[in-house]
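[job 4471] stage=fold_predict status=RUNNING
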Amino acid sequence: MTNGHKVLLSFHGGVGSVTGSNFLLEGERTKLLIDCGLIQGEKFAHALNREPFAYDPASIDCLLVTHAHIDHIGRIPKLVRDGFRGRIVSTPQTLDLSRLMLPDAFSVLRSEMSEGEELLYEEKDITAAFSLWETREYHQPFSAGEFEVEMKDSGHILGSAMCEITRIADRRGLDADKRGQESVRKIVFTGDLGSFPTPLLNNAEEVTDTTYLVMESVYGDRNHEGGERRKERLKNVMQDTIRKKGTLLIPCFSLEKTQVLLSEMDELFEDTRLFNVPVFLDSPLAIKVTDVYRRYANTLKPEAQKRLAGGDDIFSFKDLQLTMDRRASSEIERTQSPKIIIAGSGMSAGGRILEHERRYLGDPKNTILFIGYQAVGGLGRQIQEGVKHIRINHEEVEVHARIETITGYSSHMDGEHLLEFASKSAETLEKVFVVMGEPRSALFLAQRIRDYAGVEASVPQLGERVEIEL
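[job 4471] inference complete, writing structure tokens
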């Protein structure tokens, strides 16, 4: 038996797929929403994003944002449009990144609208969302109605956080110096957990005493290549394409993937005997996001801070060219190969990478390199899986370019480390809810948690509601 109070936990996104993170925790008098992300990459994603929320947005007291990826923040303006007027809380880095990500996402959504179709939300809803937004640093507890929340570093992207939630009533009468030892029932929403090692970020913090865990499972059924192995593979792919006098295309997420890639290219391009070719960063958003990383350099891992302090701009190198406007982007074609083009979107779902794919995928001298997750049914996944005939902007494109994938650049924790992460709380865990993964990945991880950690684990269904005790 427990002394906890009954709380309802429900799953309104991020189940059955990687994207659309959206979870609701309902206490006696407080409703907390964790993330409100856009569904991406799926065949019916556009229609799903337009559906009404399964709860009344006006009834939500507080929205906790784990990090600034669009599949975690992309429907916040819609939530506001539909009546939400509560608090929004994240780390300062997440707020600054969201100020870039949400307007960019709105621009993409507007460009994809069909004639006569109503906007998912309007620019004024983005502005209204930021007027409700406040920030907390890691390990700075704050109250949200009957709950206390503490954000911990999840190591996924700049400012990414896990949300550790307890009921304030359970902490009454406890001295401050006993906060780390008391037996308090809690639930942790991991958001996305970071892969390691990474050249930029600190590792995800350990969680050792939670009662419930709502955890991601993007790579729950597989492991990544190591850090040195991935850099060696990047070097080999680059050398091979250069030797063939081809063009290397890298569809890249503007947030985190691009900054990690630039950091490692910075090291590789120090050897000009190997690499002396133009590299185009063809993404205005990625360029702006990189400036945010520079602004928060003091929060990066010590090794990255040391390189920066020594005068090495780890996000730039001699042959890197930044293309902010479309005219500069279109002129990349005039540059003779070999060359390297880094452009968004990371899943080839839109953005400038599409035009480059249209131009270059038909030539066997060229290479397309995937370094991030590709959603089922999306264009990037089709190319990655070897489909030879694709459509880009209503044009048939034959794929003859070499296709490469390096999983070591994932910013998501892999299967072995996800199991290890959950196992750290095995003595206190009563249940793990495995979310934010394709069904095969989530089910595989849940089974491993049951088998190896001896903890009950389940894969929730969309709309499922469970009663827990906090």
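[job 4471] summary: The chain has 14 helices and 22 strands.
[job 4471] exit 0
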